[in-house]
Amino acid sequence: MSQPFSIYPDSFDGNTLSYHRFGERGGSLVDVVNGKVLTAYGGVTPLDDGYRFDGASGYLGASFATQPERTTLTLECWLRGWALPLETVGSPVVFYSGSSNQCYFWMRRRNNPATSMIGIRSIIDGTVLDCNWVSADADALLASASPLHIAAVRDGTSLGIFVNGILRRNVTVVATVWSAGTWLFNVGARFGTTFFVAGVLDEVRLSASARYAADFPITRFQDGRRAVVRGPGMQAGVFAGIRQ
Asked: Global pTM?
């Protein structure tokens, strides 16, 4: 069933590296954000409220050449219909440059709901730092049919995971810097080879700033304002900023 997602405030400000609103006309606006169009690989299906990922092979990807050094980053998206089997890890969004410099979501539901997790991993020059919200509440959100917003924020002193606008956990970080160079941005799988997502993602945003320092209100995009353009003569995915 179609469900509305939010429209982020300041979606196209100077700190936005990439913004993708799938399955509706707004998705075509990705081209004004650094010209980033995601290429579709494998099992992804366009819907009128996002892209469904098959949990086995489907992901979207783009390359970011000549990126500068960074100390701050925000990954965020809306997610619904989490459908991976229990004990299986999925990664909705990852920004990385090789194995030594990465930032990605990872999450899983477990047989014991109290140990289910929604988290973020930061790797800088091979040093791994995890910030994971482990809770039965996390399990309940993943199990629910309702959309949830997830945001991972890395600033100069902390790494934090926000779920539905609430800071669920944060950890102190060492003042290190992600290396300059070519970085890759994947949606729906980590590196396009592991941690595939089964579910629907929309409004994926990558930012070069630490957007959230404290709890923030979640805004919802209203059904009456949606601009769905799927129909006869439309090539699925093209209007949504996706290259098939």
From this structure: 0.85
